[in-house]
Design goal:
Helices cover 23% and strands 41% of the residues. The protein is of the alpha+beta class and 166 residues long. The protein has one domain: 2-Layer Sandwich (Alpha-D-Glucose-1,6-Bisphosphate, Chain A, domain 4), CATH 3.30.530.20. The protein has a seven-stranded antiparallel sheet. Helix 1 crosses helix 5. This is SRPBCC family protein.
């Protein structure tokens, strides 16, 4: 199993950050690194979309189904994603008070058949989207609850397929 982490200090309370992370349908409003879509019928089931860039510049998109594992307000939120027999990811945000703000630790534990065959695949792909998610979370939380205005003409990609090459 490989464990990857990314962390950031956010000038907001753990409660505020937890509320942002727990509002799954609002992810597209603040996060263009990943997209999480709840299942309409099963509230703990989700689809997680991610677009990452390989070291050679090639974009890779995935969509994995999963389940919310842990929601300990206001200090932890976690889910498990994967394709049985191939790859599993356990992703979590641990929130710890830090002065007037919060230390946010984003962890991804990767296991399964694919990571054993390609041990450098996920360590090369996940750090940039993880860091991007944390930067977006910081911006959102430090806006003190105001909604960001959408940028006209800018279409963000949320874990969808990469653009077509011409």
């Amino acid at each position: 199993m490989k464990r990857l982490t990314s962390e950031i200090i956010v000038e907001a309370s753990p409660q505020n950050i937890w509320d942002i992370l727990a509002d799954i349908p609002a992810y597209p409003e603040w996060n263009n690194s990943t997209r999480i879509v709840p299942d309409g019928k099963k509230p703990d089931e989700i689809t997680y979309g991610l677009t990452a860039v390989r070291p050679n510049g090639q974009e890779v998109s995935w969509r994995l189904t999963g389940r919310m594992l842990d929601r300990r307000k206001p200090n932890l939120i976690a889910w498990r994603l994967g394709m049985p027999g191939f790859v599993f990811l356990r992703m979590s945000y641990a929130l710890t008070p830090h002065g007037t703000g919060t230390h946010v630790l984003f962890s991804a534990e990767v296991s399964g058949f694919v990571p054993r065959i390609f041990p450098n695949h996920f360590p090369n792909l996940l750090p940039a989207p993880m860091a991007g998610t944390l930067r977006a979370l910081k911006r959102r939380a430090e806006m003190r609850g105001s909604r960001p205005a959408s940028v006209p003409g800018k279409k963000s990609r949320h874990g969808g397929p990469p653009p077509r090459r011409r």
